[in-house]
Design goal:
Elements: H1 4-18, E1 21-27, E2 48-49, E3 51-55, E4 58-63, E5 66-71, E6 76-81, E7 92-98, E8 103-108, E9 116-121, H2 129-132, H3 144-150, H4 157-162, H5 172-181, H6 195-204, H7 206-218, E10 249-252, E11 257-260, H8 262-265, H9 274-280
Antiparallel strand pairs: 1-2, 1-7, 3-4, 4-5, 5-9, 6-8, 7-8, 10-11
The structure holds zinc ion.
The site of zinc ion has 7 residues, from α8.
Amino acid sequence: MPELPEVEIVTRRLNTALAGTEVESVLAPGMNVMKTFAPPLEALAGRELTGVRRIGKMPVVEFGELSLLIHLMSAGRLRVFDKRASIKDRASRVLVRLADGRELRLREFGTKQRAWAKLLPEGEVERDEMVATLGPEAWPAPPLEALAAAVDQPRHLHPLLRDQRAIAGIGRSWVDEILWEARLSPFRKGSELTSEEVERLYDGLAVLGAAIDHYEDVIGEQVPDKLPMPLKVHRREGEPCPRCGTTIEAVYFAEHQTNYCPTCQTGGKVLKDRRLSRLLK
Ligand SMILES: [Zn+2]
């Protein structure tokens, strides 16, 4: 799933490639992809694509007074192609055909159709329920006091930091990296953090900016569907911790996993594997 650093580099590159181009037509082959019906997609024909930006993990494609707000969900990708998609391309969800022959394509891989888009008058983007309920952006990091307030909830840090209403932009990959940088357990509760620990969390958010810098260095004009994510602990169970050499451990959930270093993050404790303990019950 593309998270803040990935969506940031995608929208930066798309903005460079597309700002100022004219739209010929827009189609939505995805059955249920459009969550709005007025204004219709036809309203974009003949307009200029004025820019591409990001709110949290959501790309926003601007067409003057109209904005296309996109939620990629887990398998959506936004990319520009030199040629138009074949009608048979079953991954196509929204196709923005440009007058110069190129095409901005929202595609979604896998069988589930979950990605969505909304065409909104410019000023309504900020008022959309998905946008209005977002917490502060995780990058650039919010002021320390705002971060402290955002995480002051009696919930484990792992789900809390991924909750877009608490803080926007973090998902399953970067949460592990942030917590490892901050030397905090994924099972610490936000409301139990000391001010020194909140400061460490604040410093840990810098991995998001470092990832964007990394992408700026290694990614050219075209962003590949699978980005070279500079992850140190996520999905690296069994490997040595880059900081202390202890073996990275994993806790598995139904649809995701969290990785951590016992020495750096949990006081040496290896946490119960919930998948295993459920099986043994
Ligand atoms: Zn370690």
